[in-house]
Amino acid sequence: MAAANQHYYATRDPLGAGGDFTTSPEISQMFGELIGLWGADLWDRAGRPEAAWVELGPGRGTLSADAMRAMTKASFTPPVHLVETSPVLRSRQGERIPHATWHDAIDTLPTDRPLIVIANEFFDALPIRQLVRGSAGWFERLVACQDTLFLPIAGKQVPDSVIPESLRDAAAGSVIETSPASVAILRGLAQRIVAQGGALLAIDYGYDGPAIGDTLQAVRGHEFANPFEAPGEQDLTAHVDFGTLAAAALVERAHVAGPVGQGAFLTALGIDARATALAKAAPDRADQIAVDKARLTQDMGNLFQVLAVTAPGWPNPAGFA
Fold it and tell me: What CA–CA distances, in Å, run from 70 to 73, 149, 241?
């Protein structure tokens, strides 16, 4: 999954009508603007420190560009750091945010200031492991290649101790997913935030786990596809286990808020008022603005979850009851 996605993102711009999928920032400027104001509000209530803005997997740079425009009006103009390995997407990001600094990984992010980190549809593309319940216990699912055909197969049996106790007696065929890569990145960012100050906002489709379920999927041309076909030519993702990410942050002594649904989060941040203002400024686009708002808050409102990780001593982030 890691190798396939690395090639996939390095060789194309997958976003928009001509690509394979569309993300929230590409649906409406309201999304990025509200995320930017979320960061500016937190920065303001934290005493206006010299902070940096960080986005992980920033796509075309749309979210950060919209966020920076909104944050500037709130007097928050931090340096922008983008964690991106794709040369194609770096080029697109540079068109929107020419003054950004790019990083291949979180290791090279600034160490001398608080970080406001945004991860929108980032964790879902990180590689997962799948454990499958067989008649005699749990086995790791592996992938074999037969000629040019990739197939899932059963690997070695794993000890019950690696399975959450509440799930060990699940029915045969049950699947548990884990993402060690996601946990490692979350813990690394939480360590930075605890030491330097700041916050992480993670937004993705997911669940409050651990839980049973096979969520590995592929998307190509805005349609679901077989994830074992054409590796590197389609987007591979899995639903994000926000419960496990929250637990990883707590291990590092960070504070956690959520997860809450994206719809409730955006509503709490004021998307209704922003949509009204945009419609008043552009009456000919009022219907489309309403459609976009409904897509963000209703269609994606419950499937997408939002989790915040903040440094001890920092104020509670907006958007969480």
Answer: 5, 48, 30
Of the candidates 239, 244, 252, 270, which has an alpha carbon nearest to the alpha carbon of residue 310? Answer: 252
| pLDDT tens, N- to C-terminus, the chain (321 residues) | 999 999 999 998 888 777 778 899 999 999 999 999 999 999 999 999 999 999 999 999 999 999 999 999 999 999 999 999 999 999 999 999 999 999 999 999 999 999 999 999 999 999 999 999 998 899 999 999 988 889 999 999 999 999 999 999 999 999 999 999 999 999 999 999 999 999 999 999 999 989 999 999 999 988 999 999 998 999 999 999 999 999 999 999 999 999 999 999 999 999 999 999 999 999 999 999 999 999 999 999 899 999 999 999 999 999 998
Identify the DSSP state of 21. Answer: B
| Spatial contact of 68 and 80, defined as CB atoms under 8 Å apart | yes
C-beta neighbour count of 109 within 10 angstroms: 20
The first and second tokens of residue 191, run together, are 């360590």
Q: Which residues of 235-256 are buried (b: 16+ CB within 10 A; e: fewer)?
A: bbbbbbbbbbbbebbeebebbb
Hey, is 295 helix, strand or coil? Answer: helix
Burial of 123 (C-beta count, 10 Å sphere; 0-12/13-18/19+) = buried
Residue listed under structure tokens 């496990």:
244
- Nearest-angstrom CA–CA distance, 224 and 234: 10
- CA separation (Å) from 179 to 128, 131, 204, 237? 4, 11, 14, 11
Answer yes or no: are the C-beta atoms of 133 and 173 closer than 8 Å. yes
Q: For the chain, give percent helix, strand, coil, nearest 5.
A: 40, 25, 35
Query: What is the model's pTM?
Result: 0.95
Strand pairing report for 223-225 and 217-220: antiparallel
The C-alpha atoms of residue 58 and residue 222 are separated, in whole angstroms, by 19
Q: Is the CB of residue 49 less than 8 Å from the CB of residue 293?
A: no
